[in-house]
User: Fold this.
Amino acid sequence: MKKSILVLSFISFVSCFTLVYAQELTVEQLMKQQEAEENAQNSELAAATFESSRLIIGHSIETTKKRNLDLRISHRFGRVNDGFYDFFGLDYASMRFGFDYGITDRLTVGIGRSTWDKEYDLLGIYKILRQSSGKRNMPVSLTAMAKGMLKTIKIPNQERTFSENLSSTCQLLVARKFSRYISVQVSPIWLHCNLVPENNPNDIFSLGFGGSVRITKRVRCNIEFYPLFSDNKFENTVPPLSIGFDIQTGGHVFQVFVSNTIANNERVMLTQTTDKWGKGQIHIGFNILRAFEL
Assistant:
């Protein structure tokens, strides 16, 4: 009886393995066939719609190349209008460092950690559509992003459960490269926080948008804006607006910008932006991206 069970288990295992392997071959064959068809149709894919997978603070439609590891270090400083005593905000800094890995040219996974609220994040990004011209015409690129975030900061006299410290966000990124010099992106986003202050919503929606203008071969000017609606926002928060530059230097991309938010991720950007451009409450920030080919 035991021998029969072992034989049946072995047969089942081999059958499952064969089925999975056959499915993998089928998927690989379909991908190769699709690429061959695209080449046969002389379609031209839009490349480098943006310089990086982050427009400024939010994501762009770009993904990490297959088998590449992107190291990203982000710094945000205090308010410029704090004056010389705080060296125009440079005495204070909030940082995030993270790694993004390209499983394929379309699929990216990543992990990061921010000093603000000692928050960890885990993300997945998939490029659904790629802008192309020719016989196979696609007017826009479409990328989906999902991210989970966990705050680990300890608050005196306040205990929170694991689930209360969790938040999540989903985003669709639609972009079009109009020419070598101009790219535009629309970024609808949904954010959910499990625990929020009283009289504040758990879910926040925003229709973000941004753009990029190439100034020289290696320099771009970027803008990013996420409007907030009066009946769907945290108290005293204002829309985050950021303006900056990308500088491409070989394997590095250096981004420097000014913004009215000190955020390193979407949760802080949409729920804790209270500074106003009109009052000079802006922050200097920069991102450094280093790509490693594995």
Summary: The longest strand covers residues 68-79.
